[in-house]
Amino acid sequence: MTANGPFHILSKPIGPICNLNCQYCFYLKKESLFPEHHKASDFRMNHQTLEAYVRQYIAAEPGDEIPFAWQGGEPTLLGMEFFERVVSLQKRFCPPEKRVSNAIQTNGTLLTAAWCRFLAENHFLVGISLDGPRELHDRYRVTRSGKPTFDQVWRGLQLLKEYKVDFNTLTVVHRELAYQPIEVYEFLREHGSGYMQFIPLVERIGGAAGHLTKCGPLNILQPQDAVAPWSVEPLQFGKFLSDIFDVWVRRDVGRIYIQTFDVQLGIWAGYGSALCVFGETCGRALAIEHTGDLYACDHYVSPEYFLGNINDTPLERLVDSPKQKTFGSDKVTTLPEYCRRCDVKFACNGECPKNRFIHTPDGEPGLNYLCAGYKHFLHHIRPYMETMARLLKAGHAPAEIMGLLARNQTAARNFAGKPPGRNAPCPCNSGRKYKQCCGSSKAKAEAR
Predict the structure, then answer these.
(1) How many angstroms separate the CA atoms of 157 and 192, rounded?
(2) CA separation (Å) from 202 to 25, 56, 230, 326?
(3) Which residue has the higher pLDDT, 36 or 328?
(4) What is the pLDDT of residue 412?
(5) Are 445 and 383 in contact (CB under 8 A)?
(6) Would you list the DSSP string of 391-427?
(7) Is the sign of the CA dihedral 17, 22, 27, 29 positive or negative?
(8) Residue 329's Cα: distance from chain center in Å?
(9) Which of 24, 92, 15, 14 is CA-nearest to residue 52?
(10) CA nearest 2: which of 93, 63, 67?
């Protein structure tokens, strides 16, 4: 039996076990959920649970593609044999009319030539965690003994490229990194990352401890604990995205893919959000632990968000359970009035509920910690997104915006501070009048 609509599961086949000790990692603390586990080998998805998971996920997903996503902790600690079994089970249970895909998120430190051959041969998409240049990456991404990891990650990255493994980079935007947007972007671009994710680091000291604010049966809203000193500053995160966007929109559209920008273009073009954090509701991106325990979301792996175990209850029933539906709808029903009136609400939708722990200017709880940053960013990109959305709807590539902006820049240089008359030929050599080309209100907005 299939679920009532597409869904996605983030698999944690080794739980929170990792060979690194990144200071900002919220998942390392999840070991406390399993007091009966006394050694690292206890945190390993057994054959029975793995088979049940692969079989049930393929059967329950209503779409033609079943996207398996493997994370941790550090999933490569399981060894290649585990993932060879994954591929074997997928071939066994996947019917001819469907296909599976695999993505694995890794810190890259344990990658070898053998690993990369396997990943390439089996068409795994690899997400590699890389926080930019050495000094920024090593600020928090360290070994268990506190040593830097950049060199190890760099070796893994070179192996991925050598064996032509499809990969993207995941960069955690911590407080220090947010002040160097162009340096980070150019570094990732130069070293072969054509696909980038920038994840804002928001961590509170004490996590979700303390009394929860009642907002629906799942208590999505939580109290405002002090944020950890490495958390990104809200407005600075918006400026970080905006500065990178200004380079990208003039040079790299269609060449470099940045998750946040691509998702926003889909929203502005009317296709909705392909990413749960910007969706109006959530609840279709769940997390499964090595035990087979299913939770509402990767950021809500805690007892109050436990849905059940797939060894006891079929996966599709857990995904479509009343408890999970409430979790998903709480995202919109708990949105503060301040957010409902916002002119960019359609592009943000309050972002992820895990970050909604501050108060609105009029004192209502539930405002997103990153609100100021997203407002800055979304207002900044508005004219560009509107232009790219028009290009898409007219059957053109969004990348054509780069030519428009280049012509506007050329025209601006030709003006030498004194624009031509409204009916004069446009100095960008388009053949049109200035008022119909670079002097139009649309063109001026696009040039901003």
Answers:
(1) 9
(2) 10, 34, 8, 24
(3) 328
(4) 60
(5) yes
(6) HHHTT--GGGHHHHHHHHHHHHHHHTT----TTSBPT
(7) positive
(8) 21
(9) 92
(10) 63
The predicted-structure confidence for 312-340, as pLDDT tens digits, reads as follows 999 999 999 999 999 999 999 999 999 99
Nearest to 253 by CA among 446, 444, 104: 446
Does residue 169 sit in helix, strand or coil?
strand
CB burial string 108-120: b at 16+ within 10 A, e below: bbebeeebbebbb
Alpha carbons 240 and 155: distance in angstroms, whole number? 28
* Amino acid at the residue 119: L
DSSP reduced 3-state for 125: strand
Encode pLDDT of 37-62 as tens digits: 867 788 999 999 999 999 999 999 99
Under 8 Å between Cβ of 17 and 77: yes
pLDDT cut 90: percent of the chain above it: 81
Q: Does residue 310 have a pLDDT over 60?
A: yes
Cβ atoms of 221 and 330 closer than 8 Å: no
CA atoms lying within 13 Å on the CB side of residue 183: 13
Neighbours of 64 (CB within 10 A): 8
Give the closest residue to 45 by CA, choosing from 36, 54, 57, 33: 54
DSSP string, 292-307: SEEES-GGG-SGGGEE
Helical axes 259-268 vs 234-251, angle rounded to 10° = 80
pLDDT at 213: 43
Which DSSP symbol is given to 201? -
64 among known catalytic residues:
no
Give the burial class of 66: count Cβ atoms within 10 A of its Cβ; 0-12 exposed, 13-18 middle, 19 or more buried.
buried
Q: Phi and psi at residue 412, in whole multiples of 5°?
A: -60, -40
Q: Sign of torsion, CA 289 124 201 135?
A: positive
How far apart CA 320 and CA 284 sit, in angstroms, is 9
Q: Are the C-beta atoms of residues 203 and 175 closer than 8 Å to each other?
A: no
pTM: 0.89
Supply φ then ψ for residue 217, to 5 degrees.
-60, -25
The residue assigned the tokens 């560009």 is 384
Q: Please report which residue ranges of 108-197 form alpha helices under DSSP H.
A: 113-121, 134-137, 150-162, 181-190
- The mean pLDDT value for 389-412 works out to 91
Q: Which of 131, 252, 298, 330 is catalytic?
A: 298
Look at strands 65-70 and 8-12 and give their pairing. parallel
DSSP 3-state of 127: strand
Amino acid at 205: I
